[in-house]
Design goal:
Shape: globular
Low-confidence stretches: none
Largest sheet: 8 strands, mixed
Mean pLDDT: 96
CATH topology of the largest domain: Amidase signature (AS) enzymes
Number of helices: 15
Strand content: 5-15%
Helix content: 25-40%
């Protein structure tokens, strides 16, 4: 059996179906790779190997009987630690939930298994999924395979690290503040932030939480755009009572090439900062697309004040997660602390506190503004098919776990910038309920990957994935980290 560490999930499934190797062979291959690389990466932090071996054996038996057990049949994969997997802990990196053993699979896991996937483990996350780096007191720190001491991003950092290192064939994560998109750019893999609510999040929660937070979505990560589409098709669609009356029918892409596509490009913006190695590669991609016959507008004007949009995003994102941020006593302390803020303080910590403690009327007024912006996006996408922009402000950067996350700085072309300011680029798709596919587009002169965020109109998920696939085939595809191929 030749090396399959960096094969696509689709290729692995096809080769298992053809009998080139068994599902059990594929599983053992990735388990061995995990065992060898785990000391340096710490990407996959919880496993159920006996159950995975039984599952792989059952798929091999089904194939031997001439059955077709799904499009992902035999693919060894992992999911983010925040998803319930029966028999494994779901801690979200919290010591208090170290022993929280799931009794049943999350819906996403159920659907992936139904498609034939062999789910063998869970990937690491930051505490409460609330960081652009991946470390916690339960499982420790996850490292990037792209260089010693570099972060893979967060919160789906374990997922992106495992994929880039060839430890897992496919992954599933979640995203409210770039938790799929940021790690995908930093690790040079593909990730898809889905249109809001097309993939139900049941089983992606801590005990006692039943209401899915606003803005938050779940979606796949992979080493190819085609694998993202496979995983999305396997998991999208209504759940529970909704499934009795509704079905999901995402519109099919209306193009097979670049020619004629109306592509808006925003490689940087005055309201924030982005490293030249990131923006320059997006400019280069825009020029390539224009040469292929796309109608490229670069740079494009946004249909709103971007700085105000960013502030709205911070407030509503923090409001969405406030339910799980405090107990009752902690919430009362936060409300009291908010009273001490200066009205002129619009720093991240202050805005986070305001968002966490919004009164209902305040929230409704902000939601009203959000709906105005969603209508502005509708108008924007009448004139443009896609928006291309960064998914992070820079390439992979050194781990820094000291202090609070809004106090940690990263280097942007020799000048410090707060790590949390990268979230600026995530607000467009998140507030707008829009799909966004992250695709790698270059290895920079410093030897690190960078990518592009492909945003489309709501429910155009299959189209952003199609554009990512075209870029993959004709411009740039996943490249393994040095020394791991």
């Amino acid at each position: 059996m030749r090396e399959i560490a960096f094969d696509s999930a689709a290729s692995i499934a096809r080769r298992i179906a053809r009998g080139e190797f068994s599902a059990r062979d594929a599983l053992e291959y990735f388990l061995d790779r995990h065992k060898r690389l785990h000391p340096s990466l710490n990407a996959i932090v919880a496993t159920d190997i006996p159950k995975a071996r039984r599952r792989a054996g059952a798929i091999d038996a089904a194939l031997a009987r001439g059955e077709r057990p799904g499009p992902l049949a035999g693919v060894p994969m992992t999911v983010k630690e925040s998803f319930d997997v029966a028999g494994l802990p779901t801690s979200w990196g919290l010591e208090a939930h170290r022993g929280n053993i799931a009794a049943r699979d999350a819906l996403v896991v159920e659907r992936l298994r139904a498609a034939g996937a062999v789910v063998w483990g869970k990937s690491n996350v930051p505490v409460m999924l609330a960081d652009w780096q991946t470390f916690n007191p339960v499982y420790g720190t996850t490292n990037s395979p792209w260089g010693e001491g570099l972060t893979p991003g967060g919160s789906s950092g374990g997922a992106a690290s495992a994929l880039a290192a060839g430890v897992s064939a496919l992954e599933y994560g979640s995203d409210i503040g770039g938790s799929i998109r940021g790690p995908s750019q930093l690790c040079g893999v593909y990730g898809h932030k889905t249109s809001y609510a097309i993939v139900p999040g049941r089983g992606h929660a801590l005990p006692g939480f039943w209401s899915p937070p606003e803005i938050s979505v779940v979606g796949p990560l992979a080493r190819s755009a085609g694998d993202l589409a496979l995983a999305l098709k396997a998991t999208a669609g209504p759940d529970g009572n909704d499934a009795l009356a509704y079905r999901l029918s995402l519109p099919a892409p209306a193009f097979n090439g670049f020619r004629g596509l109306r592509i808006a490009v925003l490689p940087s913006h005055p309201a924030t900062r982005v490293s030249r190695v990131v923006s320059d590669e997006i400019v280069a991609l825009g020029r390539f697309l224009a040469r292929q016959g796309a109608r490229v507008k670069m740079p494009v004007a946004l249909p709103f004040d971007a700085a105000e949009h960013d502030r709205l995003y911070v407030l509503l994102r923090r409001a969405a997660t406030s339910m799980r941020a405090f107990d009752d006593a902690g919430f009362r302390r936060a409300v009291a602390e908010r009273e001490t803020l200066s009205p002129d303080d619009h720093g991240y910590a202050a805005e986070q506190l305001r968002g966490n403690t919004l009164a209902h009327r305040e929230w409704m007024l902000l939601e009203n503004e959000r709906q105005r912006l969603r209508l502005a996006w509708n108008d924007f996408f009448r004139d443009h098919d896609f928006l291309l922009c960064p998914g992070a402000a820079t390439v992979a950067y050194p781990q820094n776990t000291a202090g609070r996350r809004w106090e940690r700085m990263i280097d942007i072309d020799g000048e410090p910038m707060a790590d949390v300011q990268q979230i600026f680029w995530m607000g467009f798709a998140s507030l707008g309920c829009l799909p966004a596919t992250m695709a790698p587009i270059a290895i920079t002169p410093g030897g690190l990957p960078t990518g592009v965020q492909i945003i489309g109109p709501q429910y155009a998920d299959l189209s952003t994935l199609r554009l990512a696939s075209l870029i993959e085939r004709q411009y740039h595809a996943f490249v393994p980290p040095p020394g791991l191929s």
